[in-house]
Design goal:
The chain has 83 residues and is mostly helical. Helices cover 86% and strands 0% of the residues.
């Protein structure tokens, strides 16, 4: 499976589960300028950044596992064919 496709699927899942961050950002920018909403900007930014970083880590782990399994299967086929 393509690494990009794995990342896109995991990122979509993270935005569904972590929808609060983007909602905070949308509300902050859609509302009239108000200093009492500043917390929405920062929490929305941190939650969204965390979602993106977590999706990258999960995608990397998934791709490494898939590649490791594929390499192992290839080595076993090679060994069975040669030996």
């Amino acid at each position: 499976m393509s690494a990009l496709w794995v990342y896109v699927r995991i990122q979509a899942m993270m935005f569904v589960f972590g929808l609060v961050g983007p909602i905070f950002l949308v509300v902050y920018f859609a509302a009239q300028p108000d200093t009492t909403l500043r917390w929405m900007y920062w929490w929305g930014l941190f939650i969204t950044a965390g979602d993106v970083l977590l999706a990258l880590l999960l995608a990397e782990g998934t791709v490494r596992t898939d590649r490791g399994k594929a390499d192992k299967a290839t080595a076993e086929r090679q060994q069975a064919r040669d030996g």
